[in-house]
């Protein structure tokens, strides 16, 4: 009942029907669209995805980052102002491979200011709440790393390649009507809320927003994985296990009233004897024969070689290259922590890991490519 003792329309309808009025709760609204198992599934997807995101954010901020078990709820368009009462920063990403859809990551603007201050070398104690261009770029990079790690985890969960577009960042202030275009396109939104802790600086919530249709698609693929790959693998195994089928040779009868196809061949002349000997190869092991040979490698010792360490590669169209500007981020095909390639005269010879020596970058060799592989790559 409303505060001025007047009945609401829902209460009037309930009295006319002879039933009692029970206001709809958030849990009952969520249960209409997702049952308990589906809620656990979407929560588990978020838990696995953002578990790796916490590691990526911890590395960037050099702070201990904890993201707790999520809480799943549903938000309607009319309740946006109640769900997001403070100014927020929203980061929207679109899936370019693996899924069709998008989701949004939302954090409070004050938390984003702390993350930005840590990213640009501050201690996060007195961040600039204004979030200028530099701070927004820093937050965007942090969220890009988080969503990239989440996409990698989803690739493992769904057993397929998952790629996302570069994140699009905007300020979200529902009361002022700022940045609500993406949210207002959906009547209902699934909200997966995590508790975010960054050292002793942040103890707040970070939220993932998904359209109901996209959330149900994720749940359906998780609970009912496609079997094409498994069926193809089973078919290959079946073909390997089956005995080879032998084709029967066709037999043709000789045409009537014609001579037979075979004729008596003249005797062959005897071939002279041939002296056949097994091939002898020089052993690659060190022995007396090799010790007597001149060492020609000394002649090459002073030839300069170009050593290159390749962090990664990528392919971009001319249009994408022309759109690059200061602050643009180019994603490479190497994962974080993956060994880098060491090339000699543009030929890969080893792998290693990047280190810092005083103020210079260096590379520690962790694996030498075998001589056979090196010769193959040279060819």
- In CATH, the architecture of the largest domain is 3-Layer(aba) Sandwich
Q: What's the main sheet like?
A: 8 strands, antiparallel
Level-1 CATH class name of the largest domain: Alpha Beta
Number of strands: 12
Radius of gyration: 34 Å
- Average pLDDT, rounded to a whole number, is 77
Do you know the CATH topology of the largest domain? Chemotaxis protein chec
Number of discrete helical segments? 12
What general outline do the C-alpha atoms trace?
elongated
The share of residues in extended strands comes to 15-25%
The CATH homology group name of the largest domain:
CheC-like
SSE order: HHHEEHEEHHEEHEEHHHEHEEEH
Helical/strand content category:
alpha+beta
Helix content range: 25-40%
How far is the N terminus from the C terminus?
84 Å
Unreliable residue stretches: 245-256, 288-293
Q: In terms of quaternary structure, what is this? A: single chain
As for the number of domains, it is: 3
């Amino acid at each position: 009942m409303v505060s001025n003792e007047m009945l609401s329309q829902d209460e009037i309808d309930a009295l006319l029907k002879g039933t009692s009025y029970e206001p709809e709760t958030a849990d009952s609204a969520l249960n209409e669209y997702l049952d308990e198992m589906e809620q656990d599934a979407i929560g588990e997807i978020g838990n696995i995805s953002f578990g790796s995101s916490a590691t990526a954010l911890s590395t960037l901020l050099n702070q201990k980052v904890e993201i707790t078990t999520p809480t799943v709820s549903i938000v309607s368009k009319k309740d946006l102002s109640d769900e997001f009462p403070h100014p927020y920063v929203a980061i929207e990403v679109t899936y370019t491979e693996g899924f069709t859809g998008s989701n949004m990551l939302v954090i409070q603007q004050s938390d984003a200011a702390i993350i930005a201050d840590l990213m640009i070398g501050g201690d996060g104690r007195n961040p600039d709440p204004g979030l200028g261009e530099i701070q927004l770029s820093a937050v965007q990079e942090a969220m890009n790393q988080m969503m990239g790690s989440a996409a990698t985890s989803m690739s493992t969960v769904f057993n397929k390649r998952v790629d996302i577009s570069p994140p699009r960042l905007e300020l979200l202030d529902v009361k002022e009507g700022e940045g609500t275009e993406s949210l207002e396109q959906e009547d209902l939104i699934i909200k997966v809320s995590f508790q975010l802790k960054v050292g002793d600086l942040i103890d707040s919530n970070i939220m993932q927003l998904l359209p109901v249709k996209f959330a149900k698609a994720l749940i359906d693929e998780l609970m009912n994985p496609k079997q094409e790959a498994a069926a193809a693998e089973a078919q290959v195994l079946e073909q390997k296990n089956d005995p080879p089928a032998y084709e029967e040779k066709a037999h043709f009868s000789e045409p009537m009233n014609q001579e037979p196809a075979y004729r008596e061949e003249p005797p062959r002349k005897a071939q002279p004897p041939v002296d056949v000997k097994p091939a002898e190869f020089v052993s690659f092991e060190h022995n007396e024969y090799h010790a007597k040979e001149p060492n020609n490698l000394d002649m090459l010792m002073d030839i300069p070689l170009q050593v290159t360490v390749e962090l990664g590669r990528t392919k971009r169209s001319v249009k994408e290259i022309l759109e690059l500007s200061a602050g643009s981020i180019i994603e490479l095909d190497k994962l974080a922590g993956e060994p880098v390639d060491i090339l000699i005269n543009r030929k890969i010879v080893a792998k290693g890991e990047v280190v810092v020596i005083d103020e210079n970058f260096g590379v520690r060799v962790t694996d030498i490519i075998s001589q056979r592989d090196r010769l193959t790559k040279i060819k």
